[in-house]
Design goal:
Organism: Lactobacillus johnsonii N6.2
Shape: globular
CATH architecture of the largest domain: 2-Layer Sandwich
Helix content: 40-55%
Structural class: alpha+beta
Strand content: 15-25%
Keywords: ATP-binding, Carbohydrate metabolism, Cytoplasm, Galactose metabolism, Kinase, Magnesium, Metal-binding, Nucleotide-binding, Transferase
Protein name: Galactokinase
Radius of gyration: 21 Å
Distance between the termini: 11 Å
Subcellular location: Cytoplasm
CATH topology of the largest domain: Ribosomal Protein S5, domain 2
CATH class of the largest domain: Alpha Beta
Strand order of the largest sheet: 5-4-6-3-1-13
Number of strands: 13
Function: Catalyzes the transfer of the gamma-phosphate of ATP to D-galactose to form alpha-D-galactose-1-phosphate (Gal-1-P).
Length: 389
């Protein structure tokens, strides 16, 4: 998206010149799904699709938001208003939560005047590429920069998670916000969500590229299905803690989990916890495989991730299964799996570059025939995290 065009759009909406333009990326996750809130490892990367924001200061305490993607009028609220919005204005909660929590910090009094903000995304809404985290980190970085706040990027990620958990009501982990704001060009982040230790690993895929496959079926995560998965894992953890001194499922390896699984004694809780533990192990092994340039092993582990998400976590659904299973049958594919919360959204495939166009055409046809409407395909460029442009 062009900076000059964004400034022009801001001018048309607010009848004044915008001051600064920011970009916050969405994310993909190579492997490690539903492990973040279970204290496991993840392996995400920031992508070139994301959310742009044009900021202009005001001399009163009004915050005025306008989305170039949502038909409607300017949404206005007072800087001191920390109420949760409902219905059509629900999207503004991602901004309000970040404003509220940053103003509660020690130097929060620096946020002492309102602002206009024009936002526009080229990240498909409901795509499972983390548009909400991109918005939270956009708001966080704008407030950090424009009001000279003494807050680092990992802290902004934690405040984004707090916005999701406490303001919006989704019991999600830290991965999405961390990937959006800590992203590094051409690298994925190997993050231990239990300790918050992380390191950047170059995404060395050689003759292969990552293709994003969007189901074009929207998913809203702030619902019972996602929070139910979190709850089941927590119940399983509590039962394991009667014999094991652990704080998170991510501390267990497959063998230890197997030995103590008798404590869980509930089929659904057992399956949910088994996914969390096995997916964490897969993520550690997959990251090592990529470092060793064993891309075929990486691909097999990515496939195994989808199988676990289908059978043990039960979050895939017909659309995501159709994409992954169609991808597995194509020439030049190392691996494919759903990403994000599930029940819609997107999947990824690691595809040989010279097979990419055939891949999109073939998988697209299979999906349309099975589902009745088109999937969308995006080539993933791996970029830096949220920043002023």
């Amino acid at each position: 998206m062009n900076k000059d065009e964004l400034l022009k759009d801001y001018q048309e909406v607010f009848s004044e010149s915008g001051k600064d333009v920011f970009f916050s990326p969405g994310r993909i996750n190579v492997i490690g799904e539903h492990t973040d809130y279970n204290g496991g490892h993840v392996f995400p990367a920031a992508i070139s699709l994301g959310v742009y924001g044009v900021y202009g200061p005001r001399d009163d305490k009004k915050v005025r938001l306008y989305s170039g993607n949502v038909d409607g009028e300017i949404v206005e609220f007072d800087l001191d208003d920390d109420s949760v919005e409902k219905d059509k204005r629900f999207w503004t909660n991602y901004f309000k939560g970040m404003i509220t929590y940053l103003r509660q910090r020690e130097d929060g009094e620096k946020i002492n005047h309102g602002f206009n903000l024009y936002i526009k995304a080229d990240l498909p809404s409901g795509s499972g590429l983390s548009s909400s985290a991109a918005i939270e980190m956009l708001m966080g970085m704008i407030l950090k920069d424009e009001f000279d706040l003494d807050v680092d990027r990992p802290t902004l990620a934690r405040l984004g998670q707090k916005t999701e958990n406490e303001f919006v009501g989704l019991n999600s982990g830290i991965m999405d916000q961390f990937a959006c704001i800590m992203g590094k060009k051409d690298s994925a982040i190997f993050l231990d969500c239990n300790t918050m230790e992380y390191e950047y690993k170059p995404l060395k895929l050689g003759d292969y590229e990552i293709i994003i496959m969007s189901t074009n079926k929207e998913h809203t995560l702030a619902d019972s299905a996602y929070n139910d998965r979190v709850s089941k894992c927590h119940k399983a953890l509590e039962k394991l803690q009667t014999k094991l001194g652990i704080k998170a499922l991510g501390e267990l390896d497959d063998n230890t989990f197997d030995e103590y699984s008798y404590l869980i004694n509930d089929e659904t809780e057992l399956k949910r916890a088994r996914h969390a533990v096995s997916e964490n192990g897969r993520t550690i092994r997959a990251t090592k495989a990529m470092e060793d340039n064993d891309l075929e092993k990486l691909g097999r582990l990515i496939d195994a991730s989808h199988i676990s998400l289908h059978y043990d976590y039960e979050v895939t659904g017909k659309e995501l299964d159709t994409l992954a299973e169609a991808a597995w049958k194509q020439d030049g594919v190392l691996g494919a799996r759903m990403i994000g919360g599930g029940f819609g959204g997107s999947a990824i495939a690691i595809v040989k570059k010279n097979e990419a166009e055939n891949f999109k055409k073939n998988v697209g046809k299979i999906y349309r025939d099975a589902i009745g409407y088109d999937a969308s395909f995006y080539d993933a460029e791996i970029v830096d995290g949220t920043k002023r442009i």
